[in-house]
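tool_call predict_complex ligand=GDP-alpha-D-glucose
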Amino acid sequence: MSTSRLVVVSNRLADPRKPAAGGLAVALGEALSKSGGLWFGWSGTVDEPGTPGECRLHTRQAGRVTLAEIGLSREDHDSYYLGYSNSVLWPVFHCRLDLADFESGAVAGYRRVNRMMARTLLPLLRDDDVIWVHDYHLIPLAAELRALGCRQRIGFFLHIPLPPPVILAAIPQHQWLMRSLFAYDLVGLQSETDMQHFDRYVLEEAQAERVGPHLYRAFGAVVRAQAFPIGIDVEEFERLGQAREAVETCDRMREEYARRRLLLGIDRLDYSKGLPQRVRAFRNMLQRYPETHSDATLIMIASPSRDSVNAYSDLRQELEGLCGATNGDYGELDWMPVRYIHRMVPRKRIPGLCRAACVGLVTPLRDGMNLVAKEYVVAQEPEDPGVLVLSRFAGAAEQLKEALLVNPYDTTGMADVIHRALHMPLEERQRRHRALVANIRAFDVHWWRASFLKALAEADTDTQVFRPPAISRAGSPAH
Ligand code: GDG
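tool_result ok
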């Protein structure tokens, strides 16, 4: 692997040394630290007053890593972040055309911020840097950098799913977005399903040619595109699971719910996560399997997310209505079927919560990967493990075949599977758990990072051969 300096660009950045940082921040932080790297992104603050398309750069050291942060003006935040990223790209990429707002003209802000980030990042770059851009907020960043003359290797990883071409084409600027991807040397996707969608889009809509393994030529450029399913930091999560906070949490839950069996869901409160569908299936199980009354308790931790996007407040109302109705209809004086918590739980408690639950419910309608599924499995005791119920529409389902796979749109079917999970014999639970852990361990976050960066180093030679000097611009969006 190359010894170049690594530059990570993501919408938000995290101090990898802080305990609240998740496995991804830690894994990227490690790679950055090794090469004395730079992490560039939005600080999460909105500058008042601020000027659209302008920002102040603030850099600080976190160990060997340089964190370079910018603030956003209110207008840029609303159009780039709340608008195009989270009210167009997020819903459409999760196949929710009904929730997308194509009318707001937010694409101008999205382009403006990507251009501003390119302009701000460029002077910080060195000739042999390797740049790794993350996620849907920054699709056109490489094209903007190339337009300014940047020739360094640039890779892109999409953390969310890529939808089928017929859905993607609903975005008025779909061609501009996909053309922008060809300014990267490497495009990484979460799953083979996403790769099939990419393949079909570029072949059908852009008359791309396959010019080598994983290599596509279209829009006058060549890009390498490949699936790199993201993993978790298994060892870090195991350590977290042995620490005092996790052990205490598990003991307390077991004591508190000594007569019950716990089913657990941990998600951001997001419409892609299938939260209402999960409560409906649980309710359906209570209705059709009365012996589960007073026995099973569903704990739903739905941490607050993007509250100022309308679709999220509608979801919250729907979910609270469903939980309330289930408790009202089935609850007893000494048993509430659903415990719903709309708060962020401290990360140190998560492995303990997972361990105390005999069923983990990960039932998104669409999900790029879903790391909670992997965390739940790793947190289990191998001698007496819980059962993972996993949506077939999560990227993780391609790897975690020994989970009980469900269709979250099928309420009765999912209710039956949850019931089966509650009654699964020990030997079968152990067998499934062993296979799941082996897979999660083999394809952990370090594997993900190393294989992406290795492919990026190789992609450089592949794609530079094909790249004519002035072709890397993405042009303008149609709107
Ligand atoms: C995107 C893609 C892809 C959740 N609630 C709390 C909390 N969490 C932690 C979990 C897990 C992480 O957040 C969530 O990761 P997911 O993968 O499940 O989902 P997204 O946030 O939607 O992430 C997804 C991922 O990017 C990585 O590529 O897998 O498909 O959508 O680590 O444990 N953490 C704390 N309190 C909570 O209440 N501390």
